[in-house]
Write a structure and sequence with these properties.
By secondary structure, this protein is an all-alpha fold. It has 17 helices and no strands.
């Protein structure tokens, strides 16, 4: 990878980690702080998760449009500042409604990142697959570090409000880096107005959105309550394993038929969810459940570089920001239904059914990925 490309990927990888460290700390807060402090039932917790992640997805669309027209550094700075302010609001939230608004602001601020950062990589970096893999690893490290910090701090008696306030610091560091080492602006990114956005909505791209949507059901439905089954420490470790999967699948994404690898990994994830369903049906989850959850974390996050490669393969270059915006609307906005469904099923004591439904979603996602290639080849 070229030296200038490494610098861009390293900066974006750090920002990616900051975004995910905050947003993926939510499940730990939900299950080990807010459940008791606000006397919330599983359905309410699922709705809180869905509000944060839903706006994370919905906000990606307008910011995707802006990513095709504006300098990325300013948008990313706005994201970092917004995340810091939102975490401050979370830390002082006195009630469930106030917490919901704060989580919505966190999701909306975080929504700026993916369409903007991924559009920069897709336009500037030569080795797309590897760049997506290393960029994904940065996100996975943040995904693991945020929940690990929150879980450890809560376990030693810190107030959850103090813990939430401490999560402001990574956002401040991200904003400082963007001011010290700003990203170069690619003028070609401003050509988005020349190409009609209707050019995005081809048959293959709609299938790509289905890939993201079904994966989003499994992603959010699985992660929202996984800490409840395995504890915060094992949850963080499972997410950390995703960093290994990100780099490995980044290499797979460089191959001519990445959709085949995406199908195989999605099917493997579905089998792991089936195992989790079997273990959950046996009563109190044990070590087999925990070990399977770790492998599931590795597989789940290995999907991202391959999915992102599908977007860059189908979207015109000037519309990459918009394309990633719609992709993340699918995985986080529509995919938030998975968290609500998970909360409802857990409230009905249908643990095994939950993991079975999530497994079927993974199969649907992988099957849609195969269809992208067939549709493209036949067009």
């Amino acid at each position: 990878m070229r030296r200038e490309d490494r610098r861009v990927v390293a900066l974006l990888g750090f920002l990616h980690g900051v975004v995910h460290a905050n947003i993926l700390a939510i499940p730990v807060f939900l299950n080990f702080a807010w459940r008791d402090d606000f006397h919330a039932d599983p359905l309410t917790l699922g709705l809180l998760f869905a509000i944060g992640f839903g706006l994370y997805g919905i906000g990606a669309v307008p910011f995707g449009f802006l990513a095709d027209r504006r300098a990325p550094g300013r948008l990313l700075l706005l994201s970092a500042v917004g995340i810091g302010g939102s975490m401050a609001a979370v830390a002082v939230s006195p009630s469930i409604p106030a917490l919901a608004v704060s989580l919505g602001a966190l999701g909306f601020s975080s929504a700026i990142y993916h369409p903007t950062g991924l559009a920069v990589i897709s336009r500037r970096v030569a080795e797309q697959g590897r760049a997506m893999g290393w960029h994904g690893m940065g996100g996975s490290l943040g995904i693991a570090a945020g929940p690990a910090f929150v879980g450890a701090a809560l376990s030693i008696g810190w107030s959850w409000r103090l813990v939430a306030g401490a999560l402001i610091l990574p956002a401040v560091a991200a904003a400082s880096l963007l001011l010290i080492a700003p990203l170069p602006h690619d003028p070609a990114g401003g050509q988005g107005s020349v190409v009609s956005r209707r050019a995005l909505f081809t048959g293959p791209f709609i299938l790509v959105l289905l890939v993201y949507m079904f994966a989003g059901f499994a992603y959010q439905g699985g992660l929202a309550f996984l800490p409840l089954f395995v504890g915060p420490g094992l949850f963080a470790f499972a997410l950390a394993c995703g960093a290994v999967g990100q780099v490995a699948s980044g290499r797979l994404a460089e191959r001519p038929r990445p959709e085949r690898a995406l199908f195989a990994l999605s099917f493997a994830g579905a089998l792991l969810l089936l195992l989790l369903a079997l273990f959950a049906s046996g009563g109190q989850p044990g070590s087999l459940f925990g070990g399977t959850a770790i492998v599931f974390g590795l597989v789940l996050f290995s999907l991202e570089p391959l999915q992102n490669t599908l977007v860059t393969g189908e979207a015109p270059r000037p519309l990459r920001g918009s394309a990633f915006g719609f992709a993340f609307l699918s995985v986080f906005g529509i995919g938030a239904i998975g968290a609500i469904l998970a909360g409802w099923l857990l409230q009905q004591n249908q643990n095994a059914v939950l993991f079975l439904v999530l497994g079927l979603s993974m199969v649907a996602s992988g099957t849609a990925a195969l269809g992208v290639r067939r549709k493209t080849a036949g067009s």
